[in-house]
Amino acid sequence: MLLAIDVGNTNIMLGVYDGKELRKSWRISTDREQTDDEYGILIRNLFQQNALQAECINAMIISSVVPPLRYPLQKMALRYFNVSPLIVGPGIKTGLNILFDNPREVGADRVVNSVAAIELYGGPLIIVDFGTATTFCAISEKEEYLGGAIAPGINISMEALFQKAAKLPRVELIRPSKVIGKDTIASMQSGILFGFVGQVDGIVKRMLKEFPQKPKVLATGGLAGLIAKESETIEEVNYLLTLEGLRIIYERNTPTRQ
Q: What is the pTM assigned to this prediction?
C-alpha cells in the first residue's frame, strides 16, 4: 500500500492507498519542531486506531512546501515504515507541461493539484486551493500549466485582524445570518466570509477573460466548501485532490509497481 503525505504550512494531509482506492485519510497540524520520532509515533497511532497495519506500507510519496520538515519525514519513513520515500521536486516525472518563466518556482502543492485535476477533469481548468495562502492555478485546454495568482489565506487574514486590531476578538468562521452584522462578531464573520467570496469570484472572473474557452472552476482545501456555497464561480469541490495527485505522480514514477 502507498502512504501519501502532503505537507502544507498549516496542515499535513495523509492518505493510505490500496491501488487506486483511498482506504483512509487524515488531516493533522503542521509542526516544524516535531522530530522524525514524533511524526512516526503519531502516524503509527493513527494506523492503529483505524485497524491499519503499518507493515503493509511498501511505498511512500511526500510533497512539502515546508523545507525544514523534509529531512525529518524522510527519516521517519525509513525508521518507522522501512521505506525510502519519493519526494515531489525537480526531476520527478509529473507529466505536467509548466509554461512558467521559472518552472522551479511553482510550489509542489500547485503541481500536485494540477496533475490530479487534469487527470480527473481534463482542461481547461481553474483550481482554487484554500490553504495557508489561497492559490489560483490556470490550466489550458491543452492541459498546460499557465500560471496563476496567490493571495493571503483566510486564516492568515483572520489572525492578522485579531493581532493588529486591539478591540477585535478571534471569531469562528461561520456564515452569518445576514451580511449587515448587528454585533462585532457577526460583522467580522460577514466581512471575512463574504470578503473572501468576493475576492475569489473577482479573481476567477478576471482569469476567465484570459481563456479562449470557458474552464471548469474547481476548489480544494479545508475551507473550500464554506466558500463554494457562496461563490458564483466555483463549480465543484474536491477535498482529496492533492492526495489523488500524489497517487498519480507516484504511479507515473513507478510504472512497474505491483
A: 0.90
The CATH class of the 2-87 domain is alpha beta
- DSSP codes joined into one string, 59-86: EEEEEES-GGGHHHHHHHHHHHH----E
Query: Residue length, the chain?
Result: 258
Residue 256 has a pLDDT of 63
Q: Whole-number mean pLDDT of the chain?
A: 93
Is 129 catalytic? The answer is: no
Task: Look at strands 11-18 and 2-7 and give their pairing.
Answer: antiparallel
Name the catalytic one among 18, 109, 129, 183: 109
Cβ-Cβ contacts under 8 Å for 175 (sequence gap 6 or more): 189, 193, 226, 229, 230
What CATH number should be reported for the domain whose range is 97-244?
3.30.420.40
Q: How far is CA 192 from CA 186, 206, 229, 234, in A?
A: 10, 21, 15, 18
Residue 177 exposure: Cα atoms within 13 Å on the Cβ side: 2
